[in-house]
């Protein structure tokens, strides 16, 4: 059916019409990018780096090489490594911020690993709360709270280990946990 302007009224709107309107929030997000923060947690050798490279469909992190075989048996302390990848999915720019945790669960006493991750997550919440409580907010502030934690579980074939259960209990109230069998 045509109206007086000669346009057909029965034509369905385009799927991407919300992206093409300059005044819409989706248009602005599509232009500057939608941030998504993911934390990868798991013991060494469970496929965190492979998962990351496969997810991004390119080499984001190269496999670490042990150069000194005499020091290979010494567990390194857990650390946080940040990687940022810009991707485009269905016309929407996505800024994927990945926090990798090499060294998690590799030591004999892993109590410190739990505390480090818990402190990191709480620090991110505190930063956002401090920014929201400011009278004059920073327009370029980036929300760095973790949206999802991908937890790699060791495939023992029996049941979950104590470290896996404790990890999910402690952090389940602070972040969305996605368990993955490594």
Keywords, separated by commas or semicolons:
alpha/beta, 5 helices, 5 strands
Concise account of the structure shown:
The chain is α/β, with parallel strands linked by helices.
In quaternary terms, these chains amount to single chain
- Which overall shape is indicated by the principal axes computed on the Cα atoms? globular
Mean pLDDT: 79
Number of strands: 5
In terms of per-residue confidence, which ranges show pLDDT below 50 for 5 or more consecutive residues?
none
Percent in helix:
25-40%
Quick one: biggest sheet?
5 strands, mixed
Describe the structure.
- The protein is an alpha/beta fold.
- Helices cover 30% and strands 21% of the residues.
- It has a five-stranded mixed β-sheet, with helices on both faces.
- It is globular and about 55 Å long.
Helices and strands, with pairings:
Layout: H1 17-20, H2 25-32, E1 34-41, H3 48-56, E2 81-89, E3 92-100, H4 111-133, E4 148-153, H5 162-171, E5 176-181
